[in-house]
Amino acid sequence: MTKTSQDSSDLVHGFSFELGVRASEQERNSHLIRPGFGRIHTDHMVSISYDRQRGWDAGSLHPYRPIVLDPTAMVLHYGQAIFEGLKAYRQPNGTIAVFRPMENANRFNRSATRLSMPQLPNDLFIRSIRALLHVDRDWVPKNLGQSLYLRPLMFASEPMLGVRPSDQYEYILIASPADPFFSADPTPLRVWITHEYVRAAPGGTGEAKCAGNYAASLLAQAEAFDAGCDQVVWLDAIARTQVEEMGGMNLFFVEQSGDQTRIVTPRLTGTLLAGITRLSILQLAADAGFQAAEIDLSVDEWRDRCASGTITEAFACGTAAVIAPIGEVRSSKSSWLVGDGGAGPITMRLRKSLLDIQHGISEDRHGWMEEM
Ligand SMILES: *Cc1c(COP(=O)(O)O)cnc(C)c1O
């Protein structure tokens, strides 16, 4: 049964809505046992259209369905496309909360600015999440450790082959249940430092969460796979010596001197993506009584400090995988182990403290969880 309504009594968080056929409880539960990542979508989505003259329309919540695009839609030719990634978590009392959504809203707009795309009011971004979670809330998994991954995106939809910023855009929000990253001992990553390719150059789009950055990264990722590694580590574009980030995740290093523990991460130079997980870990490290710092670190320093025992652990962090330990580093020039190659205790402790906040197990001291 499909119902369409423009009646204001039928608005969900300000959006007109059209409910579609929902997956049965049995079907949904079978999907939620092992959802993996990004394979399954919920029953509905949100669409909001922009026109340079009229601004954003009221938006609608409707059944998940394909998008129809004109072959000259500008995104297909000139690549104006940005996205975000954040997660909704079932809380112990049954409510649903999203981790720091306003940070994502702000970053979405910074990305939009860099790609000459219009600003989406933060209120509209947050309301789209509320509306989708309102209708598809049964898709937020109840199993400990699982979550519902939210994917907001915006692309240029104007049919036009001339090169200039598009006058029309679509904002879309979809959601996909994600597997737990709760396993007690995650397998440490083996990472590949590429000396061949760069992700971002000063003045480029490295700070924006745009589709093109990912397109340009895939060849280096293939090089990493060929070298028997899981992920690629990016160096700066100029000197090709400084460690920047990994695949779609930021990097951290644990340094020990005497009984002092320092948690460090590469400084945001303009070519790194400013991760919200990164920002949160800097805070959690300080909360745990560690020194936390944003630094410059070269590949040689990384290797030498692992050899001398100063760097004892390394890990990558991002919304999708939360915190992933790094056990081994390889490049065309050298390879080495980080610590004993296993997941380190500080890494696992920070991981647990972040996951416990997200799943409502420990107190949310910084007000990071927004109930939806
Ligand atoms: C999204 C992303 C990250 C991680 O950001 P989070 O906000 O922590 O998910 C790191 N690097 C790149 C290149 C990214 O696209």
UniProtKB/TrEMBL annotation:
Pathway: Amino-acid biosynthesis; L-isoleucine biosynthesis; L-isoleucine from 2-oxobutanoate: step 4/4; Amino-acid biosynthesis; L-valine biosynthesis; L-valine from pyruvate: step 4/4; Amino-acid biosynthesis; L-leucine biosynthesis; L-leucine from 3-methyl-2-oxobutanoate: step 4/4. It comes from the Bacteria. Keywords: Amino-acid biosynthesis, Aminotransferase, Branched-chain amino acid biosynthesis, Pyridoxal phosphate, Transferase. Its cofactor is pyridoxal 5'-phosphate. Its EC number is 2.6.1.42. The modification N6-(pyridoxal phosphate)lysine is found at residue 209. The keyword Repressor does not apply. GO terms for biological process: isoleucine biosynthetic process; L-leucine biosynthetic process; L-valine biosynthetic process. Signal peptide: none annotated. GO terms for molecular function: L-isoleucine-2-oxoglutarate transaminase activity; L-leucine-2-oxoglutarate transaminase activity; L-valine-2-oxoglutarate transaminase activity. The keyword Amino-acid biosynthesis applies. It catalyses: L-isoleucine + 2-oxoglutarate = (S)-3-methyl-2-oxopentanoate + L-glutamate; L-leucine + 2-oxoglutarate = 4-methyl-2-oxopentanoate + L-glutamate; L-valine + 2-oxoglutarate = 3-methyl-2-oxobutanoate + L-glutamate. It is an enzyme of class 2 (transferase). Belongs to the class-IV pyridoxal-phosphate-dependent aminotransferase family. This is Branched-chain-amino-acid aminotransferase.
